[in-house]
Write a structure and sequence with these properties.
150 residues, mainly beta, Immunoglobulin-like, 1 helix, 39% strand, signal
Length: 150
């Protein structure tokens, strides 16, 4: 009889703990450096993770160590790619101010978001539109899980 009571209490406790609501910890999108020889960008996004077909606010900051950012010339590019690197969408804008080497910069941009797959990469780069191979700084993030139903 004692074993039955013990088993019943243990079973009731297990059901109670299992039924308790747990807060889901939302994974944030972490941007990391991309490519050798490029300066690093600090990138944050809102909403996080991105929502398909809604504007995404990007806050991008950093300090360039090799090249100047030139107003209306240097670009800020946002690119969404699939996991096999096919380009889903990209958006490019130019800077509204110039920044000298060593000066920290901080910019915000509202970027349209395309229809997104469940998993994809986001690349953010600062560069020179005259010489597209001349990238000054970059960062990327891998986003996993559905972004369509938030």
């Amino acid at each position: 009889m004692k074993n039955f009571i013990f088993a019943f209490i243990l079973f009731a406790l297990l059901l109670t703990v299992n039924a308790a609501p747990f807060k889901l910890n939302k994974r944030s999108t972490s941007f990391v450096p991309w490519g050798r020889g490029y300066d690093t960008l600090k990138v944050s996004i809102t909403p996080d993770p991105p929502v398909s077909e809604k504007d995404e606010k990007y806050d991008v900051s950093g300090t360039l160590t090799r090249l100047n950012i030139t107003k209306d010339k240097s670009f800020l590019k946002f690119m969404y790619t699939g996991l096999n690197y096919y380009v889903i969408y990209f958006y490019t804008s130019t800077f509204n101010e110039s920044y000298k080497v060593g000066d920290p910069f901080s910019v915000s941009a509202n970027v349209p978001t395309p229809q997104l797959p469940d998993s994809y990469y986001i690349f953010v780069t600062v560069g020179d539109p005259i010489n597209l191979l001349n990238t000054y700084a970059s960062a990327f993030a891998k986003v996993t899980g559905s972004s369509n139903f938030l």
